[in-house]
Amino acid sequence: MSKAAGLRGTLSLKSRVALAMAAVLAVGGAMVLVAALAYGRQAAREAYDRLLVGAASDIAESITVRDGAALVDMPISAFELLALAPDDRISYRIVGPDGETLTGYDTAPLPRAEGDVVFYDGAFGSEKARYVSLVRRFAERSFSGPVQVIVGQTLKARTELARDIAQNALIVLGAAGAAMAFFAWLVMRSALLPLPRIGFALRQRDPTDLTPIDLSAPSEVATLVESLNGFMARLDHQMTTNRNLIGDAAHQLRTPVAAIRAQAQLAAEEPDATRREKMVARIHERAVSLSHLLDQMLNHAMIIHRADTAPRALVDLRDVAIEAFEANEPGAFGKQYAVSLDLPDSPVMVRGDMMSLAEAAKNLLGNALNHGRPPVRIGVRSGDRAILWVYDKGDGPPAEILDEPGMRFAGDQSKGSGGLGLAIAHAVAASHAGWISFHATGGGFEAALDLPKDG
Predict the structure, then answer these.
(1) What is the mean pLDDT of residues 298-309?
(2) 252 and 355 housed in the same domain
(3) Which residues lie closer than 8 Å to 363 by C-beta, 6 or more apart?
(4) Which of 150-159, 234-243, 260-269, 276-285 has the lowest mean pLDDT?
(5) 272 with 331, same domain?
(6) DSSP summary character for residue 394
(7) Which reaction is recorded as catalysed by this protein (predicted)?
(8) Is the CB of residue 365 less than 8 Å from the CB of residue 376?
(9) CA 146: distance to chain centroid?
(10) Cα–Cα distance for residue pair 383/348, rounded to 1 Å
(11) Taking 60 as the threshold, does the pLDDT of residue 414 lie above it?
């Protein structure tokens, strides 16, 4: 499957947000439902416990003492309260001070805890039931001691009330969830409107139009637009570099290639051996110059490409200077001078691309060897910034080159230089947040890579 097909198969943002909202509502709904069930059970228990206490109180108030014995006249009001749960069965038991059952069901369980009012769960036959124990104390001559009134009720009404409360809560929750989902959809639709506008703007563009997108958008989408503009800027930079390379190659190579071709044809037709040798030497000189020009053009393109793609690492500028110094081999530059190396004892660290920095140093040294005067020195020094410098006894480049060091094919190209040395060094310095500096000093001229230190 192609990458484009994979992108088409992914869920849309609306679907993802909708699924996330549904998941949140489902989890929240489950939690609320559990809470509603617990609340319903608690509310039903408290409501019917009050009925039990009311019925037990009515029964306790109806107890009288006659002839030294407790008499119970079961009040109708107690049964009217318990009749509010018509489907439930009722059990009661009155226990005297001696533990004897005065009236009621002997099977009604007694509480395990002590107290004037005690609620507890028990059984009523094969059914679960809820009981209350209420104590009325007597202190008369003929009768004294506590009389315990026990009233119980099965749980059907409680269960139905708890279910009704939970069901009503679930209905309210469903309505609230539907309303929240609707408003969330409206908000999401409004929030995502800038994305279709950006897509439409891109589809309407000419394929070669890499200018920044200028559309108002929320901050989150604006970050995406900024990243897209940054990507298009880098792409435009690469395309401009490629166009410049093609244009420079077409412009700079056509003339020397034509000259070499014409001279080779003349040399082939020249009968005089001495003149033919001079023509061959001239062809060789032009071929060497053309080779150097090609090397510089390709190096310039490589440096610009690596500025955006090469990973950065800690580099000791002393190693860069040593590599440029060791590249000063016979035939590497147009002229050969003795080059001296001046390095500090401590490392001078920068963060950058070793290959690009070395290429810049080689070009600065090549310019000094080709256009300057001996002695030539290359070295490194450290202060607030890291400096890789090349010094010679010459006067330095013309003023127009000093003003525009990044200009390609500037200066005299007749001495074996392609006019790209300073342009390459300038591109490397700029890609490393630095610059090229020029100074007339000590009766000579210094060109230097001025870079920020790291460590």
Answers:
(1) 67
(2) no
(3) 296, 299, 420, 421, 422, 424, 425
(4) 234-243
(5) no
(6) S
(7) ATP + protein L-histidine = ADP + protein N-phospho-L-histidine
(8) yes
(9) 74
(10) 9
(11) no
H, E, C per residue of 208-245: CCCCCCCCCCCHHHHHHHHHHHHHHHHHHHHHHHHHHH
Question: What pLDDT, in 10s, does the model give residues 200-216?
Answer: 888 888 877 888 888 77
- d(C-alpha 72, C-alpha 136), whole Å: 12
Give how far Cα 397 sits from Cα of 143, 185, 250, 400, 411, Å: 129, 67, 26, 8, 8
Same structural domain, 369 and 389? yes
In the chain, % of residues over pLDDT 90? 17
In a domain, 46, yes or no: no
**Selection from 379, 409, 391, 373 nearest residue 447 by Cα:** 391
Q: What pLDDT digit, counting tens, does each position of 331-384 carry?
A: 444 455 678 999 999 999 999 888 889 888 988 998 888 888 888 999 999 989
Most confident range (mean pLDDT) of 29-38, 111-120, 256-265, 298-307 is 111-120
Q: Which of 132, 156, 180 is the last residue of a domain?
A: 156
Number of structural domains (the chain) is 3
Is 315 found in the same domain as 298?
Answer: no
Determine, yes or no, domain membership for 192: no
Same domain, 317 and 440: yes
Q: What is the pLDDT of residue 1?
A: 44
- Using CA atoms, how far apart are residues 38 and 31, in angstroms rounded to an integer? 11
Beta strand ranges found along 344-384 (DSSP E):
349-352, 376-382
Highest mean pLDDT among 53-67, 206-220, 232-246, 389-403: 53-67
**Short-list 317, 367, 315, CA closest to 337:** 367
- Domain of residue 282, residue span: 205-309
**94, β-bridge pairs:** 103, 149
Q: For residue 118, which phi and psi values (nearest 5 degrees)? A: -130, 125
Q: Nearest 10 degrees: CA dihedral of 15, 20, 22, 25?
A: -160
